[in-house]
Amino acid sequence: MISLSDYLILSSIIFCIGLVGIFINRKNIITLLMCVELILAAVNTNFIAFSHFLGNEAGQIFVFFILTVAAAEVAIGLAILTLMFRNRGSIDIDITSSLKG
Amino acid sequence: MTSAQILFYTFSFFLVASSLIMIFAKNAAKAVLFLVLAFFSVAGLWILLEAEFLAITLILVYVGAVMVLFLFVIKMLNIDKSTLRAKFAGYLPLGLIVAAIIVAEMTMVLGHEQFGLNIYPAPEKASADYSNITILALQLYTDYVYPFELAAVLLLIAIIAAIALVHRPEQNRKKQDISEQVSVRAKDRLRIVSIAKNNKEVNND
C-alpha cells in the first residue's frame, strides 16, 4: 500500500522543482507564475494526503479555499503582466527594477 | 504490486517528468501545456486519495480556466524568445543545490519511520454509497459558511481589480452625450443673418 510518507516526499519533490524553476527563470514572469502554481499544487497534495490519512475533511475544505485564492492571484497577476507589457514593451524581470532605488 | 501502487507511481512519474520539462522549456506555450499534464497527474493522485470533488475542480477550474488564461496572455503578448533564457546557466547550480538540500532534509523528516504505514495506517476504503461532495458541502455550508462567503467576496474583488487594471477608456469613439444634447439652446447653433441692401452684414441678436 501507499503510505503517507510517499505522498509527502512526492509533494516535496514537486515543491523543489517549482523552486528551481523560480531560480533559473530570471527573465520571464509568466514562467515564474507557473512555478508558483506548481508549488501550490504540491502544497494542496500535502493537505489532501493528511486529510485522507487522518480522516478529517478540514484539509479538503482548506484546499478549496487555496484554489479560490490562487485563481484570484493568477487573474490579477496576468492583468499586471499585461499592463507591464503595454507600458514597457517587455516582460523581462531585469528591467523591472524601478523600486530598487 | 497492487493496482493502487501502479497508478500512484505512474501519476508520480508523469508529474515529475512534466514538471521538469515545464521549468526547462524555452517556449512559454510549451511550458503551459506541460503544466496542464502535471495538473492532470495531480488530479489523478487526488482521486487516489478519495478527494474526487477537488480533483474534478482542479481540472475544470485550473486546466479549463486558469491555464487557458495563461495561453491567451502568452499568445497576446509577443515575447521575444531569444532574450528569455539569457541567464539560464548562471543560476542553475545554486538552484540545484538548494533543491537537493531541501529534498534531502524532507526525505529524512518525512521518511517511513515518522509517517509510514505502521504510524498512519491506510484508512478503510470508502463504501460504494460514500459521497465526497456531500461531506464537503455539509462542512462548507455549516462550519465554514463565513469563509465561503469571504471567498466569494475575494473573487468579486479579483474581477473588479483585473478589469480596472487592464481597461483602457476608448479614444476617438463617436458616442452620444445625452445631457449635452438636452441642454443645447437654439442660439448656440443658429445664427440668423439679415443681409442689408448695401451688403452690410447685421448681426441679428
- What best-fitting shape of chain A do the alpha-carbon axes yield? elongated
Radius of gyration of chain A: 17 Å
Strand order of the largest sheet of chain B: 1-2
Query: What is the CATH level 1 assignment of chain A?
Result: Mainly Alpha
Along the chain, the helix and strand elements of chain B come as HHHHHHHHHEE
Note the main sheet of chain B. Answer: 2 strands, antiparallel
What's the count of strands of chain A?
A: 0
Measure the end-to-end span of chain A. Answer: 56 Å
Please state the oligomeric state of the protein chains shown: heterodimer
Q: In CATH terms, what is the fold-level topology of chain A?
A: Helix Hairpins
What global shape of chain B is seen? elongated
Overview of this protein structure:
The complex is a heterodimer of chains A (101) and B (205). Chain A has 3 helices and no strands. In chain A, α1 runs antiparallel to α2 and α2 (29-54) packs antiparallel against α3. The longest helix of chain A is centred in the last third of the chain and has 31 residues, at 58-88. Chain A is elongated and about 50 Å long. Chain A has a single domain (4-93), classed as Helix Hairpins, CATH 1.10.287. Chain A has 101 residues and is mostly helical. Chain B is mainly alpha-helical. Chain B folds into 3 domains: 1-86, Four Helix Bundle (Hemerythrin (Met), subunit A) (Up-down Bundle); 87-124; 132-163. Chain B is built from 9 helices and 2 strands, in the order αααααααααββ. Chain B has helices at 3-24, 28-48, 52-76, 88-109, 112-115, 132-140, 145-166, 178-182, 186-189; strands at residues 193-195, 201-203. In chain B, β1 and β2 form a beta hairpin. In chain B, α1 (3-24) runs antiparallel to α2 (28-48) and α2 (28-48) packs antiparallel against α3 (52-76). The N and C termini of chain B lie far apart (102 Å). Classes of the chains: A mainly alpha (101), B mainly alpha (205). Chains A and B meet through α1, α2 and α3 of A and α1, α2, α3, α4 and α5 of B.
